[in-house]
Amino acid sequence: MVKPLRAGWLALPLLAACAPVSEDASVQPTPDKVSGALFVAGKFGNTLAKVDLSTGEEVLRVDSCANPHELATSPDDKHVALACYGGTSVDIFRTDTLAKIKSIELGENARPHGVVWHPNGNLYSTAEGRQSVFVIRDPLGETETFEYSTGKRGSHMLAVSPDAQHAWTTDLGDKTVTRIDLVTRRAPFSATVGEEPEGIALTPDGETLWVSARGSDMAYALDPQSLKRIKDVPVGDFPLRIVLRPQGDYAVTSDLADGGLSVIDTATGAKVRSIAVSSPEEAEAKTQVTILFSPDGERIYVAETMANTIAEVDFETGEVLRRLPGEGGGDGIAIIE
Question: Is 18:313 a contact under the CB 8 Å cutoff?
Answer without folding.
Answer: no
